[in-house]
Each structure stands twice: as structure tokens, then as C-alpha cells.
Design goal:
The protein has one helix and three strands. With about 80 residues, the chain is α+β, with helices and mostly antiparallel strands. It has a domain of about 55 residues. It comes from Nakamurella endophytica.
């Protein structure tokens, strides 16, 4: 049996949980950055990907390592 090499932080996709967010075009960059910083600081999320649409809205994927299910999370 031949196994494929695993390299980098993203070697095991099951070790991450993802949270997609939609940021309205009316939200300022400073407000969006503050919202994402609060989620990063208090819930352990990090920025995984950002898509910007023509209307100015953004779709953001946050990720964090899977943890015990009894830890609290911020309400979106």
C-alpha cells in the first residue's frame, strides 16, 4: 500500500472546523476587522479565506482546530 505524503498545517482536514460568514457591503473595513479580531481573540478562530463580490460584500471562512464540544462559542 502506498500512502501519500502529508505536509503542512492542513494535512488532516478533519482537524479543522470552519465557520462561514457573510459581511455586508455597508460594513466598514474597521468594523469588519474588529468583528474578526474579537472572534479570533476569544474563540480561537483564524482567517482561512475571503471572497469579495462585485456588490462589495464579502464571504469569509474562519477556521480553528477542533476542540472539546463543551467550550462556549460566540453567537453569530
Amino acid at each position: 500500500m502506498v500512502s501519500q505524503p502529508t505536509t503542512g498545517r492542513d494535512a488532516d482536514p478533519d482537524m479543522w472546523e470552519y465557520q462561514p460568514l457573510r459581511i455586508d457591503p455597508g460594513m466598514s473595513r474597521a468594523a469588519a476587522a474588529t468583528m474578526l479580531a474579537v472572534r479570533a481573540e476569544f474563540s480561537g478562530w483564524e482567517l482561512a479565506r475571503v471572497l469579495r463580490f462585485r456588490d462589495g460584500s464579502r464571504k469569509v471562512w474562519l477556521r480553528r482546530r477542533r476542540t472539546n464540544p463543551w467550550l462556549p462559542d460566540l453567537v453569530p
